[in-house]
Amino acid sequence: MLNNLFIEHALTMRPEGSLNHLPVNTLLLSPQDPLLNHKQVTGATLVSRNALLTLLSDSGHPLAHSVRQFLTEFDANNPQDRAILDIFAGRFTAIIKTARGGDHWRCGSDFQQALTRHWQQCQTLTISGGLTSHQFGLSLAERIEANFADLVVISSPWGGLTALYGLAQTVGQRDDLLVMDFGATGVKRGIARKYGNRLELLPDLKVAPFKTDGLIRKEALLEMFRNTRDMLDQSMPVAISIACYLHQGHPFDYHSGIYHRLGDDCHHLATDLHEQWLPDCGLQGLALLEHDSTAAALAFRFKHPAMMVTLGTGLGSAPCPISGTPE
Question: Considering the entire predicted model, what is its pTM?
Answer without folding.
Answer: 0.94
